[in-house]
Amino acid sequence: MKEKAEGEKEYLFDKPRNVNRLLGCFFSSLGILLIIEFFIHKHPHFAWEGWLEFYAVYGFVACVALVLAAKYILRPLMKRREDYYD
Amino acid sequence: MISTVPPAFIFIIGGLLVPFIKGKWKSAYLLLIPCIGFINLISVPEGVHWVVRFLDWELVFGRMDRLSLLFGYIFHLITFIALLYALHVKDDLQHVAGLVYAGSALGVVFAGDIFSFFIFWEMLTVSSIFLIWARRTRAAQAAGYRYLLVHAAGGLCLLAGIVLYVNQTGSIEFGYIGLNGLATYLIFFGFGINCAWPVLHPWLTDAYPEATITGTIFLSAFTTKCAVYALARAFPGTEALIWIGAIMTGFPIFYAVIENDLRRVLAYSLINQVGFMVCGIGIGTALSINGAVAHVFNDVLFKALLFMSMGAVMYRTGKINGTALGGLYRTMPFTCICCMVGAASISAFPLFSGFVSKSMVMDAAAKGHMTGIWFLLLFASAGVFHHAGIKIPFFAFFGHDSGMRPKEAPVNMLLAMGITAFLCIFIGSFPGPLYSLLPYPVDYVPYTAPHVVGQTQLLFFSALAFSLLILSGIYPGEMRCVNLDSDWFYRKGGRLFYYIMDNLFNGLNRASEKVFVGGLAGYLGRVSKDGPSRAALLALVPAWVISGATGEKLAHKKASLRAAVQTGTSPVGITAALATIFLIVVFLLM
Question: Which of A43, A75, B390, B500 is deepest in the core (most CB within 10 A)?
Fold first, then answer.
């Protein structure tokens, strides 16, 4: 297998400009998603599905909670050395 | 009409013949098996076929209805894909095991009676174990043994349930069972082990990442899906399954976030996806069962695609830990794109396959007003995007630059991944053909504006959470470590059991040896050797002393008596005298 060589060609995300473009696209699509909700007619099963930006907030909060719980609760409880079972 | 055979037989017999095909024909032969199998399958009309009388029972090898046929189609399809992916493998053992394993899975889904069902069910375990052992590492060997032991226990539990059940009902037909009484609980539990229910699940996350690169593709497709089929057949609408399924979708994602081995992350997300299916079966409405079964079809494809992309990375770099990988998009762009298609599908992005099936289960939960379940499933939907959808591609192909510049995956792997990626997008964009194959008529439209926007918001804002957590450094870094799971109980418990058994039984053994071999046997030997001469001396020495024998004469008499008794050559007179004394003693005692 080849390793990284000196002076090799630049790949897509080696250029900071491309990374910034990607992030720009991502953040603007977040904005569009938030705005688009005002223009659609909802027919929710549950009342909270009708709340403004319910899915966006839930998705964000759920993931932050997931990561924090995994990092600060599960990992300290469950982490052992790699050779624990050997 | 051409004559047809049970689908399982084509795969099993075809698989066993693999070692006899040599050279360049082998690849063609391997790919031909699922093709012939598929032609055979679509030539069989719905109904009951291949009924064989065995003793007083009727074994049914072909119960073809809409439920079993859908599983049949996807099993044929994934066998073709997995074989294509594995064409470069020179190890016949893996091809044979893979085909027999696929054949057993077909046997399970088409079995109309519970006996042949059980035989094929056990064959699943026996054949799949070789896909793990074929890795030929110590870790794989040990994980394989644990896999075998867990499945043997599950199989025995199922067998006990079947024996009781057949005894009670007098019928061996395999149909709706439902939960009532010990027999049905044992069967339920036996299915649950193969289905990787919470706490019973670690065989999966332990063994699958230890299997061979190509073996894992087979493994991810069959065992759990057969269990889902069995639950859909025997326990639809069982309320316990709703909660079991919902918990299955939830807890693995926490583990997946902190796991380093990327194939193990996928193994956790496999449990998470099977949770949606189990939950759908538990809800038991036409919509939810349709959703569960459609999700089986899609999950087999996108999970295989993710495992294939990670397998390709492992094949080229020899590494699979998140800590060692990164930046591979540079030289493995096609694998990277396929991985992202799989990631988008498992995360249920609109236009990708997961979207059109997972939402059916969610919708069924909402229609049943199951608030808690619905929130759990939604949490799991966001979480799966987080760990399988972003973490896998990010840590393998982007993230920090590992400095490795491996070649793109071999052509056969690329083809297999390409076909699967195409199917994931096709099903996601045009769900009609899949819906037309589902067990119940489908009255469901996945692409409505609120659904598409809601789901996209959920996923994009999960992605936002991931980005912010990574940028702020809060996201838990990958670590080389082991995370304890419920397998701790038998991995450490097994050692405790061994320690106790070792000390108890070997201790007993040592004590017995000391007492019986070292002590008692020697004592008995000495007693039987010296006892008679001592008794004779005890009786005769006083008589000799009275008759005046002393000193050397007495010592000489003692020595000759000892020799005479030990060699059994005492003078007749003495023997007769002893016999007389013995008789007198006996007479007096009586």
Answer: B390
